Amino acid sequence: MKLFVRLLVNALAVAITAYLLPNVTIDSFFTAVVVAVVLSIINTFLKPIVGLLTLPINLLTLGIFQVIINGAFIWFASQLIDGFTVVGFLWAVIFSVVLSIVSAVLGMMAK
């Protein structure tokens, strides 16, 4: 049950973030759920591997490079999912930052 609630909170965060940003579009709430699931899968399986491979540059930038990696994951997800459009890599990075903030606020309210 907790996983389902977290998935819905993340989908709502994706939908809100897409609404706030002008160059990011989502066709429906179902697409937001799909984006949340795909991002969860990417973060579960790819993020640890990429994080390990980019550890030296993350140490040099004090972790700020992780924002670029998150943007790359958003960009990758937008290429995979029909109905989820991100115009440019910069907007993917901005989406990643705003999504983190919105998700944190919604996560605190869901508890």
Describe this structure in words.
By secondary structure, the chain is mainly alpha-helical. It has one domain (2-110). Helix content is 79%, strand content 5%. The chain has helices at residues 2-20, 29-53, 55-60, 65-80, 89-110; strands spanning 24-26, 84-86. The protein has a two-stranded antiparallel sheet. The longest helix has 25 residues, at 29-53. The two termini are 13 Å apart. The mean pLDDT is 95. Keywords: Membrane, Transmembrane, Transmembrane helix. InterPro entries: Phage_holin_4_2. This is Phage holin family protein.
**Total number of helical segments?**
5
Beta-strand fraction estimate: 5-15%
Give the overall shape.
globular
The secondary-structure class comes to mainly alpha
Instruction: Report on the biggest sheet.
Output: 2 strands, antiparallel
For the termini, the CA-CA separation is: 13 Å
Helix content: over 70%
N to C succession of SSEs: HEHHHEH
Protein name: Phage holin family protein
Transmembrane segments: 28-46, 58-77, 89-110
Keywords: Membrane, Transmembrane, Transmembrane helix
InterPro entries: Phage_holin_4_2
